[in-house]
Design brief:
Subcellular location: Cell projection
CATH class of the largest domain: Mainly Alpha
Protein name: F-BAR and double SH3 domains protein 2-like
InterPro entries: AH/BAR_dom_sf, F_BAR_dom, FCH_dom, FCHSD_SH3_1, SH3-like_dom_sf, SH3_domain
Structural class: alpha+beta
Distance between the termini: 84 Å
GO biological process, one term: positive regulation of cytoskeleton organization
GO molecular function, one term: lipid binding
Oligomer: single chain
Shape: elongated
Strand order of the largest sheet: 4-3-2-1-5
Strand content: 5-15%
Length: about 700
Amino acid sequence: MQPPPRKVKVTQEVKHTHTEQLNRLQLKHQTDLDFLEDLRTYSQKKALIEKDYSQALQKLASQYLKREWSGAPSEEQRDSRNVWAVWRSYLEGVMKVSQSRINGCENYRSQISDPVKTFRVQKDLQLKRCCEQLARAQADLQGTIRDLEKSRKTYQEAEQTAQTVREKADMEAKSKLSLFQSRSSLKRASVKLKTKKNEWKLKATQARNDYLLTLSTTNAHQDRYYETDLIIQVLDGSFYDHVQSFLISLCQTELETSQSIQDTFQCLLDTSSGVTQDIHQQIFIQDNPLFQKAAPFQYQPCENDSVCCLLLRNVRELLKESGTAEEHSLNKEARKWATRVAREHKNIILTQRTLLEYEESHLQDQNNSELEAKMDDARECIRKSETVKLKAEARLNLLRDVGVAVDVWLKSAMNQVMEELENVRWAALNTHDASFSHSVDFDREDDEDTETLDDSSSSPSSTHRNYPLTCSVLYSYQASQPDELTIQEQEILELIDDGDMEDWVKARNRAGQVGYVPEKYLQLPTSSSLLTMLQSFSSMDAQSHTSSTSAEQEPEIETLTQSSLNTHAVNLARALYAYEAQTEDELSFPEGAVICILSKHNQEDDGFWEGEFNGAVGVFPAVLVEDLSVSYHQVSLSVLDQAACPPTVFPSCSSPESVPLPSLTSTLTLNGCQTPEPPKISSHSKTEHHSKS
């Protein structure tokens, strides 16, 4: 068993408590002194920092105030909207704010640092007096508690003795008489014991009363000690009142300085908001007439030239004299510059899309210098295209004013460009492949007369094949979903995009209907079947116009192909629209005709190509045909050597001379092989896709 805990005397416990109280009060006093010291040192250091900063700021502002600007207005001409006046006002405001900060530094010294030092000395003296007074109060309380202990001890001894006497008297009264004791002796003993019992009972009562009175006195003394003599409030004195005033001074000084800054710079903010670029540009242009808009150039006719402007009346008089040659010349100019406007419009849109993609990528990679260079090239390309387009539109406006049918050619060229842009947009939305925009030519020549249109920039490139791609249908297929396309055997389709499911592609038929078809039901073209496909394509398109045209297509293609094998490349084009020659040097052809391209570049680069059709050589508008190009090696190997079929993917090209050929297939056989049985196409995955959609 563990021994019972030792009982500590009350006097010792009270003495220990008083000692601990004194130690805690001294610790609290030291903490208060440390806090006061922190306030004092902080205010001193902050005042020093603020003073150094304000003086340095004043010195900096004064240096710029002394500087004179060549373009700055004089004091009499100063305008609040002028940037120089606002700048000078700002510097003056900085000087004013700096002086306000210096004044605040003086407040830190006079209102915080010096008063804290004085109050700290007073608090040390107060602690010394309070400790002496507290020690005397504790000694008095300890004496009272000792008296209480003595009274309690006396009471306990008297009570124990009285209890013993009572027990002995009770036992004597209960005992029986003995044969050897007389009655008188027993009576004397009983009287003596009773007297002793009463005596000790009286003593116990007196001791109890004395103990209760002493206990009441001690409790009253102890209450006074904790309520009055402990002097916690006396020891603190006016500490918190002083600290409150110090903190208020700190905040008030900061607020006064901040308010001065707020008032000064709020006014400067309102003034700065009035600074605009237009006002300063007007002032600069007024002061520098060299930058004013130059006068337009005037027509300077020769001495014997009576015509001073291009008017409809003059043109009509000229037409009467020279016949249709001048009319054709003006129409040719209209076609040329309408084509140029459409080309530049297309380049601007494609380049803007590319620039947008570059900017989105630049947000993710801010430190890509190569991407920034590409963005600069794109902006420069847009600037050049807009300039060329503006110049071309100026020519067209003049031609329109004199009665030339400019809008007809402009509408035709713009329709072709908008169709190409729409195809590019849908291809980008379906495949999420932005590579088409990266092929925009940023390195065009500065001279607008030597520019050539890069059609490859508007053709989206796929991972597996280049679209659009012409193919033939091997097996008929009946559409089972709203977005599918019904196809017939030997039908000619134009593939425009990959399908949304594997083994499906998006196609467009001759009627313009668009939908998804099974890829396995189609015969995709290869370079070895180029000659057969061109023959089939030419004959099928020509039958829709005249039977005579159909008979001329096959020998024409053979002649073109044989003659082209001796050159470095075969450049062909398919006519999208019929065209009738306007002059002797132009070439006529029906819709669907296959033309051999002899040259895409001429001295004027007016949007006309030089080609050969049915033995006739001439120029024609490039916007009316679709470029079909294939390299010399592909044609020679596939036609002459009958080699194995290469992959159905044509190499991606970056110039009009190397654009992949959208080819066709034969109506009966493909590549000289019999068509196999139609494969089984499971529409489960396709149907499931539609149900989810």
